[in-house]
Amino acid sequence: MMSQTNVLDGGCTCGLVRYRMSSAPLFVHCCHCRWCQRETGSAFVLNALIESERVQLQTGEVEVVDTPSNSGKGQKISRCPKCRIAVWSNYAGAGDALRFVRVGTLDEPAHCPPDIHIFTASKQPWVLLPPGTPAVAEYYRASEHWPAASLERRAALIASQRAAGIKAS
User: Please, are residues 33 and 43 in contact by the beta-carbon 8 Å criterion?
Assistant: First the structure.
């Protein structure tokens, strides 16, 4: 559902932080874990997974907040320093190489519907999952759900991390 140009713009509520995704995301998660529920104050979070190099700040700067995560490895949530809106996260597993862009901060969030619902074992009982979209009780293997093009991009990202001496996961 990406736009014709495969470019999506987004930003925070006050407009200080503006960013551009220069391609379609690798995959979009709708996460129903209790951690995401608490962090967002909602029933779930929508995250578009994309290589960090494909997300460019157009205006402003983000403030990175180290935040605990269920894995114990933490995450870095990038927020607008003025209105405090979270625009993306980086999780310890992929480090700075992969961003989890908050779909709700996109100007056109309808272009990034969820590809999968994760951690549905802890979803709110009143949330109804759409038929036809994969849903898993916990997490999943990318090789079983991601499209081939996204798996190729992921492999290239891992290879570049290894070449740079960064441990990839």
Answer: no
The pTM of this model reads 0.91
pLDDT per residue over 85-141, tens digit each?
Answer: 999 999 887 788 999 999 999 999 999 999 999 999 999 999 999 999 999 999 999
Helix-, strand-, coil-residue percentages of the chain, each rounded to 5: 25, 30, 45
Do 87 and 57 form a contact (C-beta atoms < 8 A)?
A: no
Cβ 102 vs Cβ 46: under 8 Å: yes
The answer for 6, left when phi > 0, alpha when psi is -120 to 50, beta otherwise, is: left
Backbone angles phi, psi at 112, to 5 degrees: -130, 65
Reported as type and span, the H/E element at residue 143 is helix 142-145
Is residue 153 within a helix (H) or strand (E), and if so which, with residue range? helix 148-163
| Backbone φ and ψ of 126, nearest 5° | -85, -5
- For residues 2 and 24, is the Cβ–Cβ distance under 8 A? yes
How far, in Å, CA of 47 to CA of 102, rounded? 5
